[in-house]
Specification:
Length: about 130
Amino acid sequence: MKIERNQGVAWRKVGDEMVVIHLARHRIFGLDGTAGLIWEALSEPRDMKALETIVSESAAKGADVINAVHLFVADLADEDLVEVVGQLPDTSKGDTVVDFPRIEWREELQQFAGKCHLIAGQSHQCNQHPGGS
């Protein structure tokens, strides 16, 4: 099984958090530190075992790393942030509290680009008259 980032997704590390934007779905996500490590590792397609290894290096002793990684990858796939080639293993949250890796927050992006030219000083593009002059 291979996991890879989907096209049309942008991201940036902001402090300890990875911010991921799904451009086509107009959604923005905040990934915790461990999830950000996984996202960075997905700069090329990876298998589940490689992602489990990355998480196990920063996990507390006895943590259910395998289940945590599987739940996180399933969450990324549900949000259309990654494509999974192959079958994801069956996982369930059950009574286990998984606090890593995870999507910490998710929001809809607000439409703003169409009015950008009315807000002076925001960026070079916003200081231009519509039509580029």
